[in-house]
Amino acid sequence: MNPTTEQKTAISETVRKHKEFLFPAVATYYQEPVALVKGEGEYVWDDAGTRYLDCFGGVLTVSVGHANPKINAAVVNQVNTIQHASALYANKPQSDLAEKLAEITPGKLKKSFFSNSGTEANDTAITAAKLATGRHEIVVLRHSYSGRSATALSSVGHSTWRPLPSQVAGIVHARAPYCYRCPFHLKPESCGGACAEDVKDVIETATTGEIAAFMAEPILGVGGFIVPPDGYFERVEEITRKHGGLFIADEVQTGWGRTGDKWFGIEHSNVKPDIITSAKGMGNGVPIGWTIATAEVADKFPGLTFATFGGNPVSTAAALAVVKLIEEEDLKTNARAVGNYLREKFDELKEKYPIIGDVRGRGLMQALELVKSRETKEPAPEVVLKVFEETKRQGVLIGKGGLYGNVIRTGMMLNSTKDNVDELVAALDKSFAEI
Ligand SMILES: Cc1ncc(COP(=O)(O)O)c(C=O)c1O
Fold first, then answer.
1. What is the pLDDT of residues 282-334, one digit of tens each?
2. Is 273 in the pocket of ligand 1 (CB under 6 A)?
3. Which tens digit of pLDDT belongs to each residue from 200-233?
4. What is the pLDDT of residues 166-184, one digit of tens each?
5. What is the enclosing helix (H) or strand (E) of 51?
6. What is the pLDDT of residues 245-261, one digit of tens each?
7. What DSSP string runs through 199-224?
8. CA triple 314-320-321, angle to 5 deg
9. 31-56: b (≥16 Cβ within 10 Å) or e
10. φ and ψ at 382, to 5 degrees?
11. HSE-up of residue 16 (Cα within 13 Å, Cβ side)
12. What is the rounded CA–CA span in Å between residue 66 and residue 51?
């Protein structure tokens, strides 16, 4: 469809108003920002009528396709039945979802608290861990992202996402398990798990020695899909428990089958988290945050707690429909199969283009780290920007991340096909060739 003059005006109007009336910190991708007006399955349309293959799903949030008819039906049905109840009353979608989540989560995780975002989910987890242990210190990872509240911001491991210094005391950052850029300049085959041992070092030197929890993303999402080496989380769990702490897995990006075969990213390790948090893909775009804990932890949360929209019937009906759909359509398996195919194609691109320094990820969470030279590993964020413009021209939307902004991230939908992958890879191949 060719854009009409009126639609072209609409583009500039939407973007102009965005620039004039929103905080400038609400930054958009692309030299000429895209205003999206429609989504269907794997595709989105801008207000000039241009169609794009959406390979980032609004940051791994549209998990089962835009305007998925089954999810939409659940939402519409719920809106027409009862939209809001508040936690002062029980509601069926919330109760049914909580029951289902207790069934699909690993170990003894049982009791849920629903909120509105990943930030709130992590805040709830940290508060619960402090209350359950009677301790106050939390170990997190450098290169991590946790959200925007005072607590979450204090946990973030990226200067770019920290407009203020730590506002909450007692949160300390261990080195990231970032093998491609090992913080200890060691090789994975002979490092002796130095990054896991750093958690011990940080606890012994930067805390009272007794912590409330260790919290990490199973794959560091905003950090550029950093995948910790095998055995990392097992050793960290051992250290954490020795120092009295609980294990919190932040599954905001890695949950819901995204990493293939398993519901949660942490299930690829032999670790039993005491708390899992999530948001994003859980609602396929409907706002929801979620914290689940063992009964032992949840039961120690005293007094009253309340989030007006937490457990909202519409959000929880959507999330329940997402979980059922992933199950019915076996999307965890699809994420593994299509994700492996994508990984093969990314590895082939790496063979072809020296600018690609590293390929990493799991399932349908795959990234390319771009460097000026494979020897120096100097980050190449300016090339990422060029690839962005070029792939956009070819009708494909991708994501980026990493501390240096030099990582191309993809979070294709869990029901993506190999044809979708071919479309993405062809656009990337052409872009790298042009650049
Ligand atoms: C791993 C992780 N945790 C927490 C958050 C915060 O979630 P929200 O933006 O919904 O508050 C994000 C957001 O990107 C995230 O990636």
1. 999 999 999 999 999 999 999 899 999 999 999 999 999 999 999 999 999 99
2. no
3. 999 999 999 999 999 999 999 999 999 999 999 9
4. 999 999 999 999 999 999 9
5. strand 51-54
6. 999 999 999 999 999 99
7. HHHHHHHHS-S--SEEEE-SSBTTTT
8. 90
9. eeebbeeebebbbbbbbbebebbbbb
10. -70, -30
11. 6
12. 13
Q: What angle do CA 265, 268, 274 make, to 5 degrees?
A: 65
**Separation of alpha carbons 240 and 202, rounded Å:** 11
Q: Is the CB of 407 under 6 A from ligand 1?
A: no
Task: Note the helical H segments in 22-117.
Answer: 57-60, 69-79, 92-104
Question: Per residue in 363-393, pLDDT tens?
Answer: 999 999 999 999 999 999 999 999 999 999 9
* CA 341 to chain CA centroid, nearest Å: 21
Other beta carbons within 10 angstroms of residue 344's beta carbon come to: 12
Question: Taking all residues of the chain, what is their mean pLDDT, rounded to a whole number?
Answer: 96
Q: What pLDDT, on a 0 to 100 scale, did the predictor assign at position 12?
A: 77
Residue carrying structure tokens 């299930």: 267
Tokens of 107: 């170990």
195 lines ligand 1 (CB under 6 A): no
Q: Report how far ligand 1's centroid is from the alpha carbon of 3 (Å).
A: 35
Closest CA to 405 of 383, 431, 433: 383
Which numbered atom of ligand 1 lies nearest the CA of 222?
A: 16
> Taking a C-beta distance cutoff of 8 angstroms, is the pair 261, 367 a contact?
no
The Cα–Cα gap between 94 and 105 comes to: 16
How many Å apart are CA 255 and CA 260, to the nearest integer?
Answer: 10
CA 152 – ligand 1 centroid, Å: 9
Which of 212, 251, 255, 248 shows the shortest CA–CA distance to 233?
248
pLDDT at 10 (0 to 100): 55
Domains in the chain: ranges and CATH: 5-64+330-434 (3.90.1150.10), 71-328 (3.40.640.10)
Residue among 59, 146, 248, 251 to mutate when testing ligand 1 (max atoms within 8 A of CB): 146
Q: What is the DSSP string of 352-374?
A: H-TTEEEEEESSS-EEEEEBS-T
